[in-house]
Known about the structure:
Elements: H1 2-18, H2 22-40, H3 45-49, H4 51-69
Helix pairs in contact: 2-4
Amino acid sequence: MLDRFNTFLDVVSEFLAHRKGLLPLIGAALVLLNLLIQLLAAGTWLASSNLFLHLGIIVAILGFMLAWAL
């Protein structure tokens, strides 16, 4: 199990090393998706929880931290 996890981390880090701005762009897209949901489906659980906003901010921050480390 640990060997597969190590292999997965190696593959992901190699992939992200060449695409440093991918995770921040995905995070920004999730924040914009949250804005669209707020405008189009205001009253639903998804709009009131701001799920994509929080997820987008976390992904973007992790992306910046990984881009700096890689």
